[in-house]
Structure formats: structure tokens, C-alpha cells
Design goal:
Oligomer: single chain
Helix content: 10-25%
Distance between the termini: 43 Å
Number of helices: 6
Shape: globular
Length: about 270
């Protein structure tokens, strides 16, 4: 992790609050009170810098063609959204784009943090917005995500590579409703048996895959296939889109705009 990137203290840090108040508990267990105090202190410092003073818009805009198909005219805040990845990096870029457009302080939570803040700037996510958290266990990752989502000063939270059960997802959804920010669950896509189209407590479920560039001037811009698999109050859709890094715009391919996403058939 770059030295200038803000981060939540590691459970292995002998002084997670930076105050000399003592080390972790027995057997290296996470001192949750100390970490929560550090989290709140860091968010308070970012708030004082003026990053969270403006009232956030009611929904996160993607692009006009996609916003028209989403209930509320964009991706709902105060909600939890699932993003499925094929491990190619496209889903991570899409998640970074959504965090950037949430407009304030965001948390990136993973047991193995491989985020590179300068690279995330390609998707509009400034290092000054970003707080990296590296819990040691799945339980600690869920706890950190829930606490961050409950904080009104946090505009977005991303949890990577965990598979919370229905009870945990419901708790995260309630936490997002309390804090008002957007919650993102990024996990690897399942097999082709159609399990990715199953029930979900999240407001939306996306599958994001990368695709090869088309015209020569597009070769440097990420190109994605965005499948909206489930949407509360909406219908499954598919879009092919390009992220224009120079102008920070998500642009749809004309021939794919509004096409209905193919439904996967389940195999038993």
C-alpha cells in the first residue's frame, strides 16, 4: 500500500489508534473499539477538509441511456449493490467509478488489499477520498463494512471477495439505509449453471466483463459489457460501454444501448 494512502489500522498493528494506548487483544484479536475510534477520527479529519459538506444527489448517475432504465434515474444510494467479477479487473474499475461518483469519503475493504490509488484515479477516484481497510478475518471485514456504511460522512463502501450470507447482507442493507451511502459487494462470478441469477437481497446485481477495444482511438479506454442481472423495480438489461478516461464519461455503444440481457437457463 503506498505510504500516502489513508488506511484503517491493521489488526496486527500494536498501536492501531496511533495514541500509544496499547496493542491488540489476546491471540491477536482485532481491537474493535480502537479501530472504530481510528475510523471515526479519520472520517472527521476528512470532513473538516470540506470533502463531505455538499448534499449528495439522490442517485448516482452512470450515463443517460443507463439512467433511464434504472428506477430513480440512476444507481440508488442508501442501498446495497452486488457486482460479479470474472477476475479480469473490469468489475474493479466499474466499482471504482461508482465510488468516485458517490462524491465523498469512501472505504475500500479487503483482507488482501491490492488497490493502487494512482491507478484508481483513471476512474475518477481520488486518493484523498479513499480509505483502505485490511481486516484479518471475514467476520472483521463484515463488521468494518457495516460500521462504515452506518456513518453518514461516508458516501460509499466497497467490500471485496467475501460471500456474506443472507443475514449479513440484510444487516449491510440496513446499515446503508441508516448512513445514506452506497454499499458495493464485489465478488467472483459463479459457474455457468445460472446461480448468478438467483435471489438476492441487494437492490441490484451486476456482472461486469471486459472486452477488446474497437476503433483505434478507443484502445486506451476500458471497454465493458455491463449485465444488469437483477434490479428491484426494474428489468434485466445489457449494455456495452466504454469508459472515456480523458473526459471521465461512460459512453454506450449505439448498437447495444437498451438491449435486453440474455437470461441464463438454470441447470439442475
Amino acid at each position: 500500500m503506498p505510504p500516502d494512502s489513508p488506511s484503517l489500522p491493521s489488526p496486527a498493528d500494536p498501536d492501531p489508534t496511533g495514541t500509544g494506548a496499547g496493542g491488540p487483544g489476546r491471540d491477536g484479536a482485532l481491537d474493535r473499539r480502537a479501530v472504530l475510534a481510528a475510523l471515526r477520527a479519520r472520517v472527521a479529519r476528512i470532513e473538516r477538509s470540506g470533502l463531505t459538506e455538499r448534499e449528495p444527489p439522490p442517485a448516482i448517475s452512470l450515463c443517460p441511456g443507463m439512467d433511464e432504465a434504472l428506477p430513480g434515474g440512476g444507481l440508488a444510494r442508501a442501498s446495497l449493490h452486488e457486482i460479479l467479477s470474472d477476475s479480469g479487473g473490469a468489475a474493479t474499475g466499474f466499482a471504482a467509478l461508482l465510488l468516485a461518483r458517490s462524491g465523498g469519503t469512501v472505504f475500500w475493504i479487503a483482507r488482501e488489499v491490492d488497490a493502487w490509488p494512482p491507478g484508481l484515479m483513471r476512474f475518477g477516484l481520488s486518493p484523498s477520498q479513499l480509505v483502505l481497510a485490511q481486516p484479518q478475518t471475514a467476520a472483521d471485514a463484515l463488521w468494518a463494512t457495516e460500521e462504515a456504511l452506518r456513518c453518514p460522512a461516508v458516501s460509499g463502501v466497497l467490500l471485496l471477495w467475501e460471500n456474506p450470507d443472507a443475514t449479513a447482507v440484510r444487516r449491510l442493507q440496513l446499515a446503508a439505509e441508516t448512513g445514506g451511502g452506497i454499499g458495493l459487494l464485489l465478488r467472483e462470478t459463479k459457474d455457468d449453471a445460472g446461480s448468478d441469477s438467483g435471489p438476492s437481497l441487494a437492490t441490484t446485481r451486476w456482472r461486469v466483463t471486459g472486452r477488446a477495444g474497437g476503433a483505434p482511438h478507443n484502445l486506451g479506454d476500458p471497454q465493458w459489457t455491463l449485465d444488469l442481472l437483477r434490479c428491484r423495480g426494474g428489468k434485466p438489461r445489457r449494455w456495452n460501454a466504454t469508459w472515456r478516461m480523458g473526459t471521465e464519461e461512460l459512453v454506450l455503444d449505439d448498437e447495444a444501448e437498451g438491449a435486453e440481457a440474455p437470461r441464463r437457463s438454470r441447470r439442475h
